Amino acid sequence: MADAAWTAYRHLIGAQVRSQTQYRASFVIDVVGSVLFGVIDIASVTVVFRVTPTLGGFTFPEVFLMTALAGCAFAIGDLAVGNVERLRQYVRSGLFDALLVRPLSSLVQLAAMDVATRRVGRVTFGVVMVVLAAVQAHVPPTATRLALLVVTPVAGGLIFGAVFVATATVAFWWIESGEIANGLTYGGLTFTQYPITIYGTLFRRLFAYTVGFAFVAYYPALALLDRADPLGAPALLGYCSPAVAVAAVIAAGLMWRTGVRHYRSTGS
Amino acid sequence: MLAAVVTNSIFGFLRFAVMLAVLDAGTRTVAGYAEPQLATFVWAGQGLIGVVLLWAPLDLAERIRTGDVIIDLLRPIDPVWQQLAADIGRAGYAACTRFVIPVLTGALVFQLYAPRRVSTYALFACSALLATIVCFGCRYLVNAAAYWLLDARGPNTLWTLASGLLGGIFVPVWFFPDAMAVALIVATPFPSVIQIPLDVLVERGSPGLPLALLAVQGGWVVAILSLCRWVQARGERKLVIQGG
């Protein structure tokens, strides 16, 4: 059964990728656009450092490392489940009913049906930036650090993926939830690009600790740079991102299940 | 609407946190802005996004793709003026809702800069109206690309990024080198949408400067609307060949 489901998912994704790459020029433009989104994030941070030598007590190479880790993590989460934000259209139009009658997970179907192949552009750019930032910040090439450098964007991608799914479930209750999710998803990207020391206490509690955004880039970057947290958190937290990611994914999964149980077709 | 205001306000907190960090690191002014001016810049900017509707769905492009646009062409009013009129009405409503709420949110938490000169309020209103028209024109051109491409997503991505980074939303244009900032303001339409109205509001520069900035915006209104008319006329011919 598990094998059969897996084959079905593979076919769904394969069909999507083939259809999206059918028009070459169009696909290339989309990939370039996706890379540009990553470029802009880096550019914004660079411009900010034109008018200041440090930000929240961190120098440019240090913040650049956080920005690169955050950008790469966001790109991975966005590639995997970013289009789940279209759930509100599926709920409103009644298309979601079609997913529920199939003997497969509704969430995985939705992700597979909408996989945005063009976003490989942003992921690739993100990986290049992480490598560049690590070199520029002189991260010592020990086995532990290299492993952390590889694991962090994946764990961050899971955290962003969980946030995408959790915020999309609002549509089950509100039907037309508008862009309310963007504050946490795209807002989360903006938040994680900078050291959490620059934010006010309330915002830090909400975004960094409650949602877990501090584990996307800030704590791992401190561990990579071998710097103590100016806010006094233990250095061990830099290695906790995978655990936080698993917890976030479980929480998002539970929210999705509750949401689907609550789902009533709009009848259209 | 409510969702958009909440999102704009969250980004207000995020963007202003970065600005505060910049101020903390150096002197109490940055790129010619004092702290209250930057606060007004960020929060009024978050409100202005909704007034000019910086990022809108590609409705016209979709109508061109499906052929529904012929219904617009059957009406005895030019599609550019028709949609501009509707957009200004929308902006008027947004000015009472989407602009006011983020500004009030910012004012509750931070100390905002209130304009010293009474004339600034009138100038800002004019500037915001011109900004709405320039923004409408830019979005119209992006959508009209669908007459040739059938899909305006590519041009729309470029517009989203250029307007954000070069228009004053992500960072004030004056964070760039001065020569580049001046070149952007005069030679590209992006700062006319966000940066110029905000500079007028926070009374940056000499008292005569807002009038010069409004003149720049006026120039862009004429240029962009003429371009819209021309592109629309060419697009209609293309549409006939394509068969609608």
Distance between the termini of chain A: 33 Å
Q: How confident is the prediction overall: mean pLDDT of chain A?
A: 89
Number of domains of chain B: 1
Q: Estimate the global geometry of chain A from the Cα principal axes.
A: globular
What is the residue-averaged pLDDT of chain B? 91
Give the % helix of chain A: 55-70%
Strand content of chain A: under 5%
Let me know the largest β-sheet of chain A. none
Helical segment tally of chain A? 13
What can you see in these coordinates?
Chain A has 268 residues and is an all-alpha fold. Chain A has one domain. Chain A contains 13 helices and no strands. Chain A starts with a helix and ends in a 6-residue tail after the last helix. Chain B is mainly α and 244 residues long. Chain B has a two-stranded antiparallel ribbon with strand order 1-2. The two termini of chain B are 33 Å apart. Chain B has one domain (2-242). The interface between A and B is medium-sized, with 34 and 34 residues.
Keywords:
heterodimer; A: 268 residues; mainly alpha; 0% strand; B: 244 residues; 13 helices; 2 strands; 2% strand; elongated
Describe this structure in a few short sentences.
The complex is a heterodimer of chains A (268) and B (244). Chain A has 13 helices and no strands.
Question: What layout of secondary structure does this protein have?
Answer:
The complex is a heterodimer of chains A (268) and B (244).
Chain A: H1 2-20, H2 24-48, H3 60-81, H4 87-93, H5 96-100, H6 106-113, H7 120-136, H8 143-168, H9 170-174, H10 182-193, H11 201-210, H12 218-225, H13 241-262
Helix pairs in contact in A: 1-6, 2-3, 2-7, 3-7, 3-8, 8-10, 8-13
Chain B: H1 2-25, E1 29-30, E2 33-34, H2 35-52, H3 59-66, H4 69-74, H5 79-96, H6 100-109, H7 119-144, H8 146-149, H9 153-166, H10 178-187, H11 190-193, H12 195-201, H13 209-242
